[in-house]
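Check my protein:
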Amino acid sequence: MTWPVYDAKARFSELLDAALKEGPQVVTRRGVETAVLVPIDEWKRLNNQAKQSLTDPLLDPNGPHDLPVVPRMNLKLRPFTFDDSE
């Protein structure tokens, strides 16, 4: 369901109940979808599913600091010889 911001503010308890019973509730401002109210369980599930960026483990002071190693492609190198003719 979609709620204009003034209704969401005036009827917040109803908005919260609707989110718990019916799922995510969209809040609009001047007709533009601006925010979504979701139950906390769904928020936690979505947050856990979010893909971690490369900087997250590096900046996390509590670790873990072991990064996944991406295998390199096997490249075939051309033969190389030094030319002593000069």
Notes: DSSP finds four helices and three strands in the chain. The chain has a mean pLDDT of 86.
